[in-house]
Automatic annotation (TrEMBL):
Keyword Transmembrane helix: yes
Record has Transmembrane as a keyword: yes
Coiled coil: none
One Pfam entry name: DUF3307
Organism name: Bizionia echini
Name of this protein: DUF3307 domain-containing protein
Keyword line: Membrane, Transmembrane, Transmembrane helix
Transmembrane segments: 37-53, 87-106, 121-143, 171-191, 211-233
Top-rank lineage group of the source organism: Bacteria
Length: 234
């Protein structure tokens, strides 16, 4: 299983951490002619090599790299402005499915007792990484159907403040859960509700209120599910 976690971790870093927005825009504009597409795939290959660090797995790594290119190409070809949100999730689902299928086709799932500490540490790192920028981007894709600028017209906030708040709250919820301090999760939710209450009370926009509530619940929900998943697998 440790190999599978390395493959997923390489995907998260390559697709979310090491892919600037400018690259995404270039790929969407130029599609298969964009050099950023092939640079992005090359980075994925490099990450797989670094994380796995075992040349005997070269068929698996080459297959994953090829599948990543195919999936990204399919997305770019068929994606439109209206279907961008849907294709984001289709793309990620296909990538994860391809990782699992390739892993089970090329390897067996047995591991020794000596791998357990390393496996738990890698699982923890994967969960923590997932709760940062990947979830932020996932939530941006979820909310792309609504125009937040119209909902908050006249109100300015710090640049990327919402993203950083979301990252911090998800990391805190995850840490509280794996430490079995569920009461701290309740306290954190209550504290955020108190801070948000003033904004929601003063706002006359029902849509903005619903937007904030949905975002908060999704963010906490993903963090809680990730924490529970870690406890089950660790």
């Amino acid at each position: 299983m440790i190999l599978l976690l390395k493959l997923i971790l390489a995907h998260l870093i390559g697709d979310f951490i090491l892919q600037p927005k400018s690259w995404v825009k270039s790929k969407e504009k130029r599609k298969l002619k964009s050099p950023k597409l092939y640079l992005h795939v090359a980075i994925h290959m490099a990450l797989l090599l670094v994380f796995v660090w075992d040349i005997s797995y070269w068929p698996l790594l080459l297959t994953l790299t090829f599948l990543h290119l195919i999936i990204d190409a399919i997305k770019l070809i068929f994606q439109t402005k209206k279907s961008k949100r849907q294709w984001f999730f289709i793309d990620q689902i296909l990538h994860i499915v391809s990782i699992f299928l390739t892993y089970y086709l090329y390897t067996n799932t047995t591991f020794t007792i000596f791998e357990i500490p390393t496996e738990s540490a890698l699982l923890l790192l994967t969960c923590l990484l997932f709760l940062t920028k990947p979830v932020s981007i996932i939530m941006q894709a979820i909310f792309s159907k609504w125009n937040i600028e119209k909902l908050t017209k006249g109100n300015e906030s710090l640049k990327d403040a919402g993203q950083y708040i979301g990252i911090l709250e998800r990391l805190l919820v995850f840490i509280f859960i794996i430490m079995n301090h569920w009461e701290a999760v309740g306290f954190l939710i209550t504290a955020k509700s108190v801070f948000r209450f003033g904004d929601l009370k003063e706002s006359k926009h029902r849509k903005l209120t619903e937007y904030i509530l949905i975002g908060t619940l999704i963010s906490f929900g993903i963090a809680i599910i990730t924490g529970i998943t870690f406890q089950i697998l660790a």
